[in-house]
Backbone:
């Protein structure tokens, strides 16, 4: 085998040290904000039983689930000629498990399985990879991380507002300028009722969902094709196109839906969220967007979408309220609201706008040059002192040419190098030669001075 | 479907919030120490191509690899009647990918695939789950985390010593008392040569490896069964049973192996590691253990094993030096040394000895009782202030009976509860009623005082 043949599977990625520092930078900010709002981390296994996963993502979704072959002689389950089966039927016989496709269904399964241990309301967050056998393309992978926060067992709209607060704070800390868009599924339902076609809710949602991509005219054409007459299409179009600030839009909506109780309830829910925002206003715009649908049929109330305003990349976060998370597993009446952050898209935005701080390039702050066995024994004592102060440092492990050691420090982007040779060891003042790799200047410093310099640099970040 | 049917697959686990806090506590300490020694984190995908995984873990290991069914119509690859295939052959046709079985083989693949980006010496650490279709049993799972640190591209024995330093520091911080045992594969090879049976090295290693479990007499019987004569068995037994401190043992070994260059080299390597330890001595015992083999044929030099001394649980960490990590993928001459920490065993030890600090029981430090809409609006401003100081806090989201809210705080083990009702809102001195949930006492405090109290508590930890 030549070494060229070796690679990760299609659509999957390794994360290099530099990529890990960047990803951890994003995750740490997200985790930290989730936790200050009382959300608690859980993790579920990579694999779930296929009985748990199947039928939850629609036909297209189901096809994208990675299935895991039963261990042992999986063919024992097949008692007829295989030509009597479709490959889907066969896979159900020889594969009982699959890799998780999202974090929502495993969370629903978690809640049902642990219902006797969980105290409601339950605020959980989860940051884990999920797998989809999607066609790999730029920025889209077959293994990717989702970062979800959900609170279940509470109908209060303060939960919605806290999700917005969390998003605002996360993107503030990351340095990404965002706008938050809100809608409510009950208003979408109201539209379907308004045109006397409640059964077309899904089609209307799908059409509205495409407004962003294909424009309002084309989306309305799609609706006409579904059998809506011109008047109905016009009515929907007029709602989506409502002008003005949130207050104005709400006034108009209340007039339009005056006879539609459910829609009025949706409008009032939005109003309440906006009222919280008056008292504790977010630093980002919160916009009522009646064309927001997010194509997800399981949302039953608030719909949330977050966009980065400085790059054209679609939504970087979204969520909403659902009435019946665990009904599919036989546990009814558990409602909740949640939000999901797309780590890859966020990283893309951060890279495009150069928002990662420079310390995400390296962890080691200082390297000791290796001058031989005697010097090594001297250095390991110094290194220990530095590490006790939390400083990431290393000794070049081999006594090779200094040039080679220096080019290693350079390639690793290590900012400082210590040269502790014979003369430094014999130096009674305990000073070491420290080279600043960015300027090339050298300076004699005590260990305490080195510790102070690096700690000060870290505190500045 | 009744909700009872819902569960994780056999041998796999959910991690509850409390379990996550404990696991993160362990991982954070491990990560932090790895990083202060200059080790850099990488991650590899859950899945690898089966060409990468197969044949690397022996026959038994290969059977335990979870295989992932090819997506789409996987049966297209089968052109004959399936009865012409064994199930192993079939699985190779319908599954091209598998879940990673350990972190070493994916790391070797990583090094080969990214050889042009990697600067040697390369210090990497990796903390990720691996999967094995093992028989599930107590303390043994089909999905579990490995924490590996390896340095490749350096033959220096300072690397071995740094791994010992790292282990010492990690277990010190976790509060687990350990002893480190060392051996060297070259001495094991020396034993095989000493009895003129170099081809029996593996059998000798396996027998020696069992000494701990089945006793030295039974292990020596096994060797006799492999065809070793009494004299040979006695020779090996005498070496394994060598008495005295490390210095004494080394002296005796040097005499025994005086004519065996390779063994002498192994002895000198151990001597060098012990010399580093004289200069910068670890707080735990480092013991030369000639019965240590760790059954892994790929070790070529130092062998390391770490045991917790207060519980009888086997090794909680181990590693060693290997000469040829990436040879299997066509890239020769990459040697290295590494160590692996078993997160589950470490957690078991910590639980058994009650070593987890109390703050691993909850993240939220303070909860605000919900008295209704007006109070909510007042509270969200206070919460914001607390969160700006990094304090994890939450508002009970619904205006339900105080008793219910209190029992939630109790169940969540939240240490403080704020009661901010009508009177507190109208209070001109801005003081809130704070209830200490452990003592039941109530106190009027300003937001600043609350922040100070909780920050002080956190700093004490």
Residues:
């Amino acid at each position: 085998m030549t070494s060229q043949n070796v690679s990760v599977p299609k659509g999957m990625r390794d994360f290099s040290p530099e990529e890990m520092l960047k990803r951890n930078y994003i995750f740490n900010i997200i985790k930290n904000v989730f936790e200050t709002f009382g959300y608690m981390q859980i993790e579920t296994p990579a694999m779930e039983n296929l009985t748990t996963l199947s039928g939850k993502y629609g036909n297209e979704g189901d096809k994208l689930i990675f299935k895991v072959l039963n261990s042992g002689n999986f063919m024992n389950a097949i008692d007829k000629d295989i030509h009597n089966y479709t490959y889907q039927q066969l896979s159900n016989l020889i594969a009982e498990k699959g890799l998780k496709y999202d974090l929502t269904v495993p969370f629903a399964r978690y809640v049902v399985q642990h219902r006797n241990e969980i105290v409601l309301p339950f605020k959980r967050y989860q940051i884990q990879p999920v797998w989809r056998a999607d066609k790999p393309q730029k920025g889209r992978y077959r293994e990717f991380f989702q970062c979800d926060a959900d609170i279940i067992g509470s109908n209060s709209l303060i939960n919605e507002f806290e999700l917005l607060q969390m998003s605002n704070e996360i993107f503030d800390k990351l340095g990404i300028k965002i706008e938050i868009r809100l809608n409510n599924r009950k208003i979408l339902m109201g539209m379907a009722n308004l045109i006397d076609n409640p059964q077309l809710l899904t089609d209307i949602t799908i059409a509205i969902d495409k407004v962003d991509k294909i424009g309002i005219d084309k989306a309305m054409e799609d609706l006409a094709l579904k059998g809506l007459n011109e008047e109905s299409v016009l009515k929907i179009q007029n709602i989506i196109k409502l002008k003005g600030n949130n207050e104005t839009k709400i006034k108009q909506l209340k007039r339009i839906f005056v006879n539609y109780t459910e829609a009025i309830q949706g409008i009032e829910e939005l109003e309440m969220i906006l009222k919280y925002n008056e008292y504790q206003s977010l630093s980002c715009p919160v916009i009522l967007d009646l064309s927001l649908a997010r194509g997800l049929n399981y949302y039953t109330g608030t719909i949330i979408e977050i966009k980065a305003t400085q790059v054209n990349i679609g939504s970087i976060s979204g969520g909403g309220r659902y009435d019946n998370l665990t009904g599919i597993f036989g546990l009814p009446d558990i409602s909740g609201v949640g939000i999901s952050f797309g780590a890859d898209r966020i990283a893309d935005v951060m890279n495009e706008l150069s928002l990662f701080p420079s310390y995400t390039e390296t962890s080691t702050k200082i390297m000791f040059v290796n001058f031989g066995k005697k010097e090594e024994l001297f250095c390991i004592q110094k290194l220990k002192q530095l590490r006790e102060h939390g400083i990431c440092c290393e000794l070049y492990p081999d006594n090779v040419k200094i040039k080679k050691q220096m080019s290693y420090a350079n390639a690793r982007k290590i900012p400082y190098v210590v040269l502790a040779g014979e003369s430094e060891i014999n130096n009674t003042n305990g000073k070491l030669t420290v080279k600043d790799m960015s300027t090339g200047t050298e300076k004699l410093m005590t260990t305490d001075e080195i510790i102070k310099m690096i700690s000060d640099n870290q505190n500045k970040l």
Observations:
- Chain A touches chain B through 110 residues (CB under 8 Å).
- Chain A is about 40% helix and 20% strand.
